[in-house]
Write a structure and sequence with these properties.
By secondary structure, the chain is α/β, with parallel strands linked by helices. It is built from five helices and eight strands. An eight-stranded mixed β-sheet has the order 1-7-8-6-5-2-3-4, with helices on both faces. α3 runs parallel beside α4. The protein starts with 13 loop residues before the first strand and ends with a helix.
Length: 203
């Protein structure tokens, strides 16, 4: 039997059988309002699950980013175009949802609003599979994260996302606390941001 992978061995970094269980457990624990940012939507299976949960009542907005044209390049055994929905977002009838359609790096204007999200807890879903867009999003997003925000990686132990996480932990590991994982996914809580910014201000 192979060993189950995870990032960190703290008591809070618990194993879950599915990503749905993992996200439901951690997002439902958020105190107060929160905002969802989902990078990589495809057919919207994960979105539908979260929208159907009771804790979604405290979500004030859900932003889904995707070209809906599938993988832009081959990824493992999957060829470019896999996961395409013909450019069409899923039909999910909920007024809190807003789709941002386009390639993340090319249509970067679509993420310009993120720095304004300074009050509510952010739940960031990273499911783009590939290194390049995942790295780009985190590079843009990380300076605006705050304590309590959540970062979820759907393919955390696959080569591309694993490399992103490895680099992130090497550079910013003091700000990330692993709080749950599955055989594929990992979720981190953002920590120590407030004390770091306060120390920088006083320096």
């Amino acid at each position: 039997t192979g060993q189950i992978q995870s990032y960190g061995d703290s008591e809070d970094n618990q194993f879950f059988l599915s990503r749905e269980q993992l996200l439901s457990s951690r997002v439902s624990a958020i105190q107060g309002d929160w905002i969802g940012l989902e990078f990589g939507v495809a057919e919207g299976a994960l979105t539908r699950h979260i929208v159907s949960q009771r804790f979604f009542q405290n979500c004030i907005a859900w932003h889904g980013f995707d070209s809906f044209l599938g993988l832009p390049r081959d990824w493992g055994d999957l060829v470019a175009g896999t996961f395409s929905t013909g450019g069409q977002p899923p039909t999910i009838n909920n007024s809190k949802i807003r789709w941002h359609i386009g390639e993340i790096k090319r249509d970067q204007f679509e993420v310009d609003f993120i720095p304004q999200l300074r009050k509510e807890t952010l739940v960031v879903i990273l499911d783009m599979d590939l290194y390049e867009p995942t790295h780009w999003v985190l590079d843009k997003l990380f300076p605006f994260l705050k304590d309590g925000d959540l970062l979820y990686f759907d393919e955390a132990f696959h080569e591309d996302e694993a490399l992103v996480i490895e680099e992130l932990l090497e550079q910013k590991g003091d700000f990330l606390r692993p709080i749950g994982f599955t055989i594929f996914a990992q979720i981190f809580e953002v920590v120590n941001m407030k004390s770091n910014r306060e120390s920088n201000l006083s320096a």
